[in-house]
Design a protein that fits this description.
mainly alpha; 59% helix; 105 residues
Length: 105
């Protein structure tokens, strides 16, 4: 029930697939169906948002920068991520948060 409210209010997709079945129509329904198809592929990669506490906003800033550079400006993903890597690693170091896979392996 909580995840359905989150989905409806902010468009953040719940971790529980059944919650997405509650949306009967409209743009969110289309997005939910697309996300569910992606998650059900054999080569799907699930990415978790790191728990960085008060530094979460800095993570968001790095993420948005990467998105803009790669998707909107057509820059090379390897180059962009290499440029942002040190800033991102510093956030994890400062907060003591574990690195997500594959970097944690």
């Amino acid at each position: 029930e909580t995840e359905v409210k989150i989905l409806r209010k902010v468009g953040f997709f719940p971790a529980i697939q059944e919650a997405s079945g509650v949306i009967p129509e409209g743009p969110l329904k289309i997005l939910v169906e697309g996300v569910n198809r992606q998650l059900s592929t054999k080569d799907a990669l699930v990415a978790m948002i790191p728990s960085l506490g008060p530094k979460g906003g800095e993570f968001k800033e790095i993420y948005i920068t990467a998105f803009k550079e790669i998707v909107l400006h057509g820059k090379d993903p390897a180059t962009v991520t290499k440029q942002l890597k040190e800033k991102l690693l510093k956030l994890f170091e400062e907060t003591g948060a574990p690195l997500p896979p594959p970097d944690s392996q």
